[in-house]
């Protein structure tokens, strides 16, 4: 076929378009990134003991990271070790996600030092930023001695400059490179204690399932209920007991365990059975529930509430009770669901934006002026939800929109070193500002010998607290 000037021009134009398209596509997929961090042993002067190498690869819209110890870790003879690796990803305005793995190594029968690799972990398909200012991976590996409790820390890969040295920025879509946010300014006192569920700045949140304690399922309690088919986590539904057995429940109480938004599963639910039993004896049906860890905890708590509301109906009296981070979730349900009748919080944080600067009990002085506990809780929450998102996860920050009609009881032990009692006032003041008639009962229980929240209380204080629970639900259902 004869090539006319018109055909030649069209062919050249088509080739140019294809070249431009190919060039644009290539520019949208940055080259892989490889980053290495030295694994060090701080207790013996921080000599190098292996290398954690992380490789990040891209598609046009996603990024994936694989972390592996390219140099094996030296383990001394005569000990039991746990080697853990995590990779987390945090995209601005979303809760971080993580993937972790662990491997136990026993050298008690070895005659010499052994070399072992920590587990390799891949976190795939994470969204690259578009309009967000940043997204980044955080890889980390650590070695723990299993010979004592709590497990002493033998080695880790966290660098001295924190997130700036550990983080790997992800390029936004259409860009070739990314940026990291600044290191968190909320630090802890003393030596570094690890980057996994540690409460250290910029640490990683991941699941810590609590094992079953071996106790039998109480009479009248079931682990299956049609209202909660397909539940995201373990739960127990308990029917009223004593003189209320066989009667229509007076209300439904969702019971939510604590554990820094990381402890989950059967054992955590079993630990809350005394609270469920107390409400069952009052004629209430209970849903004693767990949840998936970290940023998924709030969605799961709301899932159980919504299914209970659907099943029991709009006129049912639904309440929540939670301990520590479970108290936070119990209150947050009220901030998200204005038809919650009441919420009981045992030592639950209410304002994750301010808790780091509020004073908790200091056993050394007897004063309420130490901020270590609040800084620790702040950092656990930042790892779970993202530091930039803490207002959205703070019940006190949401009280002007909701919660103002929910009846609230907040109890704290007077010796609580973790969550400042001021957190109860933060929520109460926000609710009263939104609704001067809001019912908020805050009580600080006298120090004694009976476990409560993060401390211990007297029997008289506990009896008074139980009476306040009765008063909370005394009015007729709305």
Task: Walk me through what this model shows.
By secondary structure, the chain is an alpha/beta fold. The protein has two domains: 143 residues, Immunoglobulin-like (Sandwich); 264 residues, Rossmann fold, CATH 3.40.50. It is built from ten helices and 25 strands. Strands 13-14-17-15-18-19-22-23 form an eight-stranded mixed beta sheet, sandwiched between helices. A hairpin with a 2-residue loop joins strand 24 and strand 25. Helix 5 packs across helix 6. The longest helix has 23 residues. About 4% of the residues have low confidence.
Q: Return residue spans where pLDDT drops below 50 for at least 5 consecutive residues.
A: 8-26
Strands ordered across the widest β-sheet = 13-14-17-15-18-19-22-23
Please give the CATH class of the largest domain: Alpha Beta
Number of strands: 25
Enumerate how many helices there are, as a single number.
Answer: 10
Question: Mean pLDDT score, rounded?
Answer: 93
> So what's the overall shape?
globular
Task: Give the name of the CATH superfamily of the largest domain.
Answer: Alpha/Beta hydrolase fold, catalytic domain
Helix content: 10-25%
Short description:
The chain contains 10 helices and 25 strands. By secondary structure, the protein is α/β, with parallel strands linked by helices. It has 2 domains: about 140 residues, Immunoglobulin-like; about 260 residues, Alpha/Beta hydrolase fold, catalytic domain (Rossmann fold, 3-Layer(aba) Sandwich).
């Amino acid at each position: 076929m004869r090539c006319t000037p018109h055909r030649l021009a069209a062919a050249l134009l088509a080739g140019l378009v294809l070249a431009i398209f190919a060039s644009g596509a290539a520019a949208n997929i940055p080259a892989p990134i490889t980053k290495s961090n030295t694994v060090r042993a701080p207790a013996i002067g921080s000599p190098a003991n292996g290398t954690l190498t992380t490789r990040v690869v891209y598609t046009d819209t996603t990024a994936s990271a694989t972390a592996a110890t390219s140099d094996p870790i030296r383990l001394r003879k005569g000990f039991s070790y746990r080697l853990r690796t995590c990779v987390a990803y945090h995209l601005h305005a979303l809760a971080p996600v993580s993937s972790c793995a662990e491997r136990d190594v026993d050298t008690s029968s070895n005659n010499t030092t052994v070399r072992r690799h920590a587990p390799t972990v891949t976190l795939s398909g994470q969204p690259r930023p578009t309009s967000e200012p940043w997204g980044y991976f955080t890889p980390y590996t650590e070695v723990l001695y299993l010979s004592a409790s709590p497990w002493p820390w033998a080695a880790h890969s966290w660098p001295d400059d924190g997130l700036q040295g550990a983080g790997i920025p992800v390029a936004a879509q259409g860009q070739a490179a990314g940026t990291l946010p600044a290191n968190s300014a909320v630090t802890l006192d003393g030596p570094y204690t690890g980057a996994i569920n540690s409460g250290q700045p910029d640490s990683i949140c991941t699941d810590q399932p609590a094992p079953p304690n071996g106790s039998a399922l109480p009479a009248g309690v079931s682990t299956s209920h049609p209202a909660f088919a397909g539940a995201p986590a373990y739960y127990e539904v308990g029917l009223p007991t004593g003189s209320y057995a066989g009667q229509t429940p007076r209300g439904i109480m969702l019971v939510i365990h604590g554990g820094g938004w990381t402890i989950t599963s059967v054992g955590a639910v079993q630990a809350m059975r005394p609270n469920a039993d107390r409400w069952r004896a009052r004629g209430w049906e209970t849903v004693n529930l767990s949840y998936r860890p970290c940023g998924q905890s709030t969605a799961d708590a709301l899932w159980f509430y919504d299914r209970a509301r659907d099943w029991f109906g709009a006129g049912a009296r639904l309440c929540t009770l939670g301990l520590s981070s479970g108290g936070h979730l119990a209150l947050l349900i009220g901030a998200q669901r204005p038809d919650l009748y009441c919420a009981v919080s045992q030592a639950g944080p209410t304002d994750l934006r301010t808790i780091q600067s509020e004073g908790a009990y200091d056993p050394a002085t007897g004063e309420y002026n130490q901020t270590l506990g609040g800084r620790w809780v702040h950092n656990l929450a930042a790892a779970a939800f993202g530091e930039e998102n803490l207002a959205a996860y703070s019940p006190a920050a949401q009280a002007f929109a909701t919660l103002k009609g929910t009846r609230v009881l907040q109890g704290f032990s007077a010796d609580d070193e973790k969550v400042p009692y001021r957190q109860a006032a933060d929520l109460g003041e926000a609710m009263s500002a939104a609704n001067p008639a809001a019912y908020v009962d805050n009580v600080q229980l006298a120090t004694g010998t009976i476990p409560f929240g993060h401390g211990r209380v007297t029997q008289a204080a506990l009896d008074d607290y139980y009476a306040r629970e009765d008063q909370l639900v005394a009015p007729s259902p709305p």
